[in-house]
Amino acid sequence: MLYVILLAAILIFAIVLYDKPFMKIQFKQGDVSAYSGHVDKDFLHQCKSIVKGNPFDGTVKVYRSRKQYRMKFSKGIPNKTRHILRSALTGGKPHAKKR
Q1: Tens of pLDDT along 4-29?
Q2: Which H or E run contains 32?
Q3: What confidence tier does 38 reach under pLDDT thresholds 50, 70, 90?
Q4: Structural domain boundaries of the chain?
Q5: What are phi and psi of 71, to 5 degrees?
Q6: Given its phi and psi angles, is residue 11 left (phi above 0), alpha (psi -120 to 50 degrees) or beta?
Q7: CA 29: distance to chain centroid?
Q8: Packing angle between helix 41-53 and helix 79-88, nearest 10 degrees?
Q9: Are 71 and 85 in contact (CB under 8 A)?
Q10: Is 82 in contact with 75 (CB distance < 8 Å)?
Q11: What distances in angstroms separate CA 75 from CA 39, 42, 91, one per listed residue?
Q12: Closest C-alpha to 60, from 78, 80, 77
């Protein structure tokens, strides 16, 4: 009986800790090198034009909550470019003021 409880606890922790982004886009040398997930073609086209203007290396992960999208950026992406990418994603969560 104890092993069933331990197995259930391990399964719950694995589900919670597993990283499941809605889409993932990798940028290298001012170009989109790879993408996975449900990538919107319009958003991908806008990302390519943004990266050509501001070249950088990094990764963008997009998570979907009930009604909005949340974006996580790697450290290689400048803050100015982060805001431009957030505004390019339709339905994206705007960067609100912290309290």
Answers
A1: 999 999 888 888 777 788 899 999 98
A2: strand 31-37
A3: confident
A4: 16-88
A5: -115, 140
A6: alpha
A7: 19
A8: 160
A9: yes
A10: no
A11: 22, 25, 23
A12: 77
Matching residue, tokens 């997930």:
37
Going by their DSSP bridges, the two strands 69-73 and 23-28 should be labelled as unpaired
pTM for this prediction: 0.71
Q: Which residue has the tokens 């960067």?
A: 95
Number of residues assigned to the chain:
99
Helix (H, G, I), strand (E, B) or coil at 6: helix
Strand order of the sheet with strand 23-28?
A: 31-37, 23-28, 58-64, 69-73
List the structure tokens of 89. 């994603």
Calpha distance 20→30 (Å, rounded): 26
